[in-house]
Amino acid sequence: MTFRTVAADRPLRLVQVGAGGMGRAWLRTITANPDVELVGLVDLDLDTARAALTDAGLDGVEIGRSAAAVAKATSADAVVNVTVPEAHLVVNREALQAGLPVLCEKPAAPTVAAAMVQTAIAEAAGELLMISQSRRFFPALRALRREVAGLGTIGTVRTDFFKAPHFGGFREQMPHVLLVDMAIHAFDAARYVVDAEPVSVYCEEYNPEWSWYDGAANAVAVFEFDGGARYVYDGSWCAPGLETSWNGSWRVSAADGSAEWDGDGAPRVHRPDAGEPAVASVEPSPSELAGSLAAFVAALRTGRAPENAARDNLRSLAMVEAAVQSAETGVRVRIDDVLEQARQDALALTDREDVRTVLEAAG
């Protein structure tokens, strides 16, 4: 992929869209990075934007309700989109059409089709759209991938995720709540660890009688990956006691040994021919949101596609959509079938010829 780059002669000037709870986390991340400068903050509620800036100790930042307008007023270089998923298409389209690259919070959109439209808009505009799949940037997860690469052919990767959060609000009314709101983190990380792409999935979901969620809080999914590896996700959002990390608990079984990660500390690796299990070395690197932001800046400086560029991230979102389809129908679902149906749906969502040309070429 090719996209416009930004010269490295000064900090990257950013406009952030969204000043709520996650927006405040992004404000802290942006202000901690010397390679960027916050020049604008956009929110439909200007009082919310002002309060967020005051709490962050920031002044001299332009505020407004339009990303394009604030970016123009501040000569911004890029946009960070921290709005709710339903608003991503509107905000990203406005920014990309104004000639601004975008770093967008996950998920890219509520559906793969809407995410495809955004991807095509970015490619038609020659601008970078990157999805902040921030959990990829845990240094320990990156260490796990390095160790797994030396274990030979992968047989099985497993993630156990057991938590019991009482969120209140919309999550407790969501259908498919675990799959749609949380599992994408693990699914995307599995693509990263296996270093291959998913082929198909069979998934079952259910809701225990003690669950405080309306939708299914438990799910078990088995993905086949290119090369034959299987990825097993076993999760629950109503599992009190002995809870796992928010990253889950991981185990990898391969031809020459095994690795495990508790989701927090350093991975452990055991190659029987090499002796006893060993703790892997974890190299310091920007973590979570800071890692996403650093990767976005590096991509705009160098022109090299980042992890989770929008087109790459489509397969992580398709894993979620395929798992939901499988849970609803009781049959194995192919990822490519989900992507092709999404492409047809995306074509129906746009009447822009340049965007349609990109979508048609992807078939």
Summarize the model shown.
Helices cover 39% and strands 22% of the residues. It contains 12 helices and 15 strands. Helix 4 (85-97) runs parallel beside helix 5 and helix 5 packs across helix 12.
Write up what this structure looks like.
This protein has helices at residues 21-31, 46-55, 67-74, 85-97, 112-125, 139-148, 177-181, 183-194, 288-302, 310-329, 335-349, 353-361; strands at 12-17, 36-42, 62-64, 78-81, 102-105, 129-132, 154-162, 198-206, 218-225, 230-236, 249-254, 257-261, 268-270, 278-279, 333-334. Helix 4 (85-97) packs parallel to helix 5 (112-125) and helix 5 crosses helix 12. The chain contains twelve helices and 15 strands. It is globular and about 60 Å long. It has a nine-stranded mixed sheet with strand order 14-13-12-11-7-10-9-8-15. It has two domains: 12-135 and 288-313 and 335-361, NAD(P)-binding Rossmann-like Domain (Rossmann fold); 139-279, Dihydrodipicolinate Reductase, domain 2 (2-Layer Sandwich). It is α/β, with parallel strands linked by helices.
